[in-house]
Amino acid sequence: MGLNWFRVPKDIVFGEGALSYLAGLEGKRATLVTGGSSMRKNGFLDEAKAQLEKAGMEVSIVDGVEPNPSIETVVRGGQEMAEFGPDWIVAIGGGSALDAAKIMWVYYEYPDTVFEDLVAGKFPKLRTKAKFIAVPSTSGTASEITAFSVITDTKNHIKYPLVSYEMTPDIALLDAVIPSKMPAHITANTGMDVLAHAVEAWVSTEATSFTDPLAYEAIRLVLKQLPVAFKQPNDIKAREDMHNASALAGMAFTNASLGLIHSLAHKIGGEFGITHGLANAILMPYIIDYNRKATNKVEELEKQLGIENLTVAIQDLNKRLNIPLTLKEVDEVEINEKEYLEVIDRMSKNAFGDPCTLTNPRQSSPEDVKKIYECAFYGTSALEI
Questions:
Q1: Rounded to an integer, what distance in angstroms lies between the CA atom of residue 213 and that of residue 6?
Q2: How do the domains of the chain map onto residue ranges?
Q3: 370, 359, 363: which is closest to 148 by C-alpha?
Q4: Closest of 194, 193, 187 to residue 229, by C-alpha
Q5: How far apart are the C-alpha atoms of 127 and 129, rounded to whole Å?
Q6: What does the DSSP assignment read for 287-346?
Q7: How is the beta sheet containing 88-93 ordered, strand by strand?
Q8: DSSP assignment letter at 70
Q9: Do residues 204 and 261 touch, judged by C-beta distance below 8 A?
Q10: Which of 52, 66, 128 is nearest to 99 (CA)?
């Protein structure tokens, strides 16, 4: 019997005003990594910079991280850090900014890194030059907690989930005021990402008595508070609960891993550019039903939550969040039937080969994955697969 691990950041600082923690750090230089303009527009980037300067540090900013961060972006970020020489890397923003900053960290400390080695799980030992702090602006990816990063190969249209405990942040700062500025549709998509993380950690073949309570509490909080945060964005209690749920789900899945929901979402995201949380939300009910033949934990979860059918409950939640129930109904990007069917075989093969597939409770195949993709597109039941 092999040994199991449970690893999370050394410190998780949470509550209103958590950004002030940055003023107590020790170091000479810090680099802030962020995405688009939202952190700057809402004043959080300037606040983080001011807190780091209070600590007596010189601060640089690496910005412009795109929604699906590319290999080129993380290499560029590593080069900019190498020119500045930070003692601390502080990522602030959505999951994309946090994911990108983790791999920038690798390229900063090891400029000659070969990306394919990272895909193969060959990570060097980090913290030779800098430590890492993650400040999430969304209650979703839990990248502030996890050993995961998702980077896109834009040339081949493939998202690569990279995994190494070396990338687990040293400190996670959870300030619920930051996600309170999210637009409603981002609240919905990122919140459903939390639910997918927790559900997959719950049924994972690597689930343990350490991860189950965290996954369960995250599921309970999302089902209760996501509709509130969606409808009432300034309800700070709902925002705190969702932010905490994201971190709890992150603690669960970074140790138990994920499953086919994420495998399929990664690959359709690479092909069509659909938002990750939205893809998860649509795919989740179909894959829960697919997995029922291999695990009793879905039924166990339904009993503990006091709900009759988890699949129906998630579809009802999607409706309340204005999320479509099928992939063909998505309107943020165009997924037309002809193009979908042209790439479905490639997507299915790539999704089956995704690392998340390894811990799915039901053993699958490229053929089964294709059937799930078809069910999720047309809205047919996956119970018969």
A1: 13
A2: 11-179, 184-378
A3: 359
A4: 187
A5: 5
A6: HHHHHTTT-SHHHHHHHHHT-S-HHHHHHHHHHHTT--SSGGG--SS---HHHHHHHHHH
A7: 11-14, 171-174, 131-136, 88-93, 29-33, 58-62
A8: B
A9: no
A10: 66
11-179: CATH topology is: Rossmann fold (3.40.50)
4 pLDDT higher than 90: no
Q: Compute the average pLDDT of residues 99-107.
A: 98
Residues facing 62 on adjacent strands = 33
Comparison of pLDDT for 29 and 5, the residue scoring more: 29
Query: Where does the chain have alpha helices with state H?
Result: 38-41, 44-54, 71-84, 95-109, 115-119, 184-203, 212-231, 236-256, 260-272, 276-291, 297-305, 310-320, 337-352, 366-378
Q: Is the pLDDT of residue 36 over 90?
A: no
- Looking at the chain, the whole-number percentage of residues with pLDDT higher than 90 is 87
Contact 169, 133 (CB under 8 A): yes
- Distance of alpha carbon 143 from alpha carbon 163, whole angstroms: 11
The predicted-structure confidence for 328-352, as pLDDT tens digits, reads as follows 999 999 999 999 999 999 999 999 9
Angle subtended at Cα 110 by Cα 60 and Cα 355, rounded to the nearest 5 degrees: 105
Average pLDDT (239-244) is: 94
Residue 1 has pLDDT above 70, yes or no: no
HSE toward the beta carbon, residue 119, CA cutoff 13 A: 12
> 50 versus 234: which is more confidently predicted?
50
Instruction: Return the pLDDT at 270.
Output: 85
DSSP state of 167: G
Report, at the CATH architecture level, how domain 184-378 is classified: Up-down Bundle (1.20)
Q: Is this prediction's pTM over 0.85?
A: yes
- Coil, strand or helix: which one is 30? strand
Structure tokens at 175: 């300030």
